[in-house]
Automatic annotation (TrEMBL):
Name recorded for this polypeptide: Manganese catalase family protein
Family: Belongs to the manganese catalase family.
Cofactor: Mn(2+); Ca(2+)
Residues of the signal peptide: none
Binding site for Mn(2+): E35, E65, H68, E151, H184
Gene3D superfamilies the record matches: 1.20.1260.10
Organism for this UniProt entry: Variovorax paradoxus
UniProt key word Metal-binding: yes
Length: 305
């Protein structure tokens, strides 16, 4: 059960309207790193969670994310307020109205015309919000890691938005939202570490002969570090160490019934290529006679025409 309090979690103070900036703020309203995605991610995890501690934490943070959605949505609405009224009432001449909503050089005219300046559930490029942003898989040790990364990504987006405005009130509100991403990341990390063991994710262990092998498969400019050296790693640089690591031939095989085998062989025979042929191509047919003769002369090692 939810009960909405009309007072914002953090007071929004906007010094002047700015439709272009409002459009950029939509990234945290209806974007993949935004507050609605976070709220839905944590809410669905909470509903499916069996651990009472994690369930409580996830519901708390999911609900707070909804309050953050309200804050960022209010920022969008306030930044659009002046242009919204002028456009709706036709106060300006056509050219001036168009200039006012496109002067920032982005797609703010789309949100003004299509959504009336309200906080639409789209990102800053106008892409509609989608549940595909939610990557919950139902395994706490995996989901908590994903949550930690999601909070980190959201913090970075807020940092970038802060750098796009000199409005002190907007900066303060964005700074609050950014800071709460840090707090949530800490909570998720603590919850992850409270599960012991928590790596590897899931129940099944890895194959021990491969869990500490680092395959150096990209050649040139190799750099060694804690991610691929030390007593916890076996560094496999020789290509021979990287092929058929199971001890087999490395060639794929499949067991077929006699009927399937006959069908596969018949298809292979029907579609076989003739390695001795040299059929003309469409490109060759479109060439001039001289070009064809030059190409044939090159193949025969004779002087061109």
């Amino acid at each position: 059960m939810f009960s909405h309090n009309k007072r914002l979690q953090y007071t929004v103070r906007v010094s002047e309207t700015n439709p272009g900036l409002a459009n950029l703020m939509l990234e945290q309203f209806g974007g993949p790193q935004g507050e609605l995605a976070a709220a839905c991610r944590y809410f669905t995890q909470a509903v499916g969670e069996d651990d009472p501690g994690r369930k409580d934490m996830l519901f708390d943070i999911a609900t707070e994310e909804l309050s953050h959605l309200e804050v960022i949505g209010t920022i969008v609405a306030m930044l659009n307020k002046g242009a919204k009224g002028r456009l709706a009432e036709g106060v300006d001449a056509e050219a001036e109205a168009f200039r006012s909503i496109t002067g920032a050089g982005n797609d703010s005219h789309v949100t003004q015309v299509l959504y009336g300046g309200g906080p639409a559930l789209v990102n800053s490029a106008g892409v509609p919000w989608t549940a595909a942003y939610i990557d919950t898989i139902g395994e706490p040790t995996a989901d908590l890691r994903s949550n930690i990364a999601a909070e980190a990504r959201a913090k970075i987006v807020y940092e970038r938005l802060i750098n796009l405005t000199d409005d002190p009130g907007v900066k303060e509100a964005l700074g609050f939202l950014m800071t709460r991403e840090i707090a949530h990341q800490k909570s998720f990390e603590k919850a992850l570490y409270a599960i012991q063991p928590n790596f590897p994710p899931g129940k099944l262990p890895g194959m021990p002969e491969f869990t500490k092998v680092y395959f150096d498969m990209s050649k040139g400019g190799e750099v060694r570090g804690p991610w691929n050296q030390g007593e916890k790693w076996d560094y496999a640089s020789d290509p021979k160490q990287q092929m058929a690591v199971d001890g087999g031939s490395g060639e794929p095989s499949v067991q077929l019934t006699a009927e399937d085998q006959a069908a596969v062989e018949a298809m292979a025979t029907r579609t076989a290529s003739d390695p001795t042929g040299n059929p003309p191509t469409g490109a060759e047919l479109g060439m001039s006679d001289d070009a064809i003769l030059d190409e044939l002369a090159t193949e025969l090692g004779k002087p061109k025409v």
